[in-house]
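Re: beginner question about structure tokens

> Can someone show what the tokenized structure looks like for a real chain? I only ever see the sequence side.

Sure, here's an example I had lying around. Input first:
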Amino acid sequence: MTLAEARKVLDDSEKHSKGIIERAKEVVQNSLKSRLAEAKEELIQKKTGRLGRMDAQQAKGRMAYGGTVMGKKHFYVAGGSVTLNPGLKALRKSSPEAFAKITKGKTIKGE
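And the corresponding structure tokens:
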């Protein structure tokens, strides 16, 4: 039974026996499972490029976003985060001119 036939059977379920209806349900479920598997494989290929699936060791080794400081993004292999140096934070509060000179006048958001 094809998927189109199964859908027709399910649309007119009153005209068909329970066995045929059950078979039609199986055909539709198998079709959905295969479509889901194809979509999942396609997503994996998009994420990993053409190399196929990555094993757990490679996935752990990927670079992770660590934060932004002084307008630069920082990435780390084992996670972690980057923040503005506590000494520079104190200098920014006490002497904004000196801080601007050290940081070459870059503005820093959220710190």
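Each token stands for a local structural state, so reading them left to right follows the chain. Residues 43 and 49 are 10 Å apart (CA to CA).
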